[in-house]
Task: inverse folding
């Protein structure tokens, strides 16, 4: 006897093969058989008229803040999403500090207001719904570990790295060699702690709450390449970059 048998569903297995009507048996938390299942299940589900498929992965979300007050990451699970990736476009709320010093409240406030502006989030929700009690990316991950219903992974955001390293200069000039090295160090630490990759943006649609281009838009090509180069030290991680919105020009290509 199987633990669960899902019967008469349209099986879409994610391989690209056409869907087919079949049964699916589960034993010990794993798929044991797909096809005609003659044995009974402890639980029987009639999926006639429904699709049976693997969960969907949403690779571009901004649940970094919502994760603290909504452990379901709604509405993603309602659409069959079982894994989400946050921290896109360089907009993250960790790390909050560079080096061993205390968090500069101005940096935390900036990242909060930037996120509210670029992603249309209510500022009151970010102020009241977040504990803001982490310093590093690792501590941020620890605060969320084991609390979320869907699987979740997060990228390390360029604008956050730039702000905590350069403070107010992050939106006014290019970084020095020393500042780039510190951003690399923070990125490396975040990836070692479990970050899924690095994200950034140069899109002209991304401005902060003061109307100024977000920090990553002030980065030189050398800075961007230097940060991207850190990712190759961590097999399985990835890059996410928004060069522009709309049709790409020659410069973007």
Result:
């Amino acid at each position: 006897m199987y633990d669960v048998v899902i019967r008469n569903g349209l099986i879409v297995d994610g391989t690209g093969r056409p869907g087919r009507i079949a049964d699916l048996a589960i034993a010990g938390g794993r798929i044991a058989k797909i096809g005609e299942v003659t044995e009974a299940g402890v639980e029987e589900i009639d999926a006639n008229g429904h699709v049976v498929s693997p969960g969907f992965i949403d690779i571009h979300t901004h649940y970094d803040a919502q994760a603290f007050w909504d452990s379901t990451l709604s509405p993603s699970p309602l659409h069959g999403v079982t894994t989400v990736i946050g921290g896109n476009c360089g907009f993250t709320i960790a790390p909050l500090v560079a080096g061993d010093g205390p968090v500069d409240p101005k940096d935390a406030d900036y990242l909060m207001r930037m996120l509210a502006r670029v992603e249309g989030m209510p500022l009151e929700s970010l102020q009241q719904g977040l504990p803001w009690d982490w310093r590093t990316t690792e501590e941020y991950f620890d605060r969320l570990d084991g609390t979320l219903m869907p699987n979740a992974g997060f990228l390390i955001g360029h604008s956050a790295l730039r702000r905590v390293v350069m403070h107010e200069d992050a939106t006014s000039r290019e970084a020095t060699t020393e500042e780039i090295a510190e951003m690399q160090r923070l990125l490396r630490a975040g990836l070692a702690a479990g970050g899924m990759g690095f994200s950034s943006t140069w899109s002209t649609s991304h401005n902060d709450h003061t109307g100024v281009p977000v920090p990553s838009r002030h980065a030189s090509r050398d800075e961007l390449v230097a940060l991207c180069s850190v990712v190759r030290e961590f097999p399985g991680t990835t890059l996410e970059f928004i060069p522009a919105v709309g049709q790409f020009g020659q410069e973007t290509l």
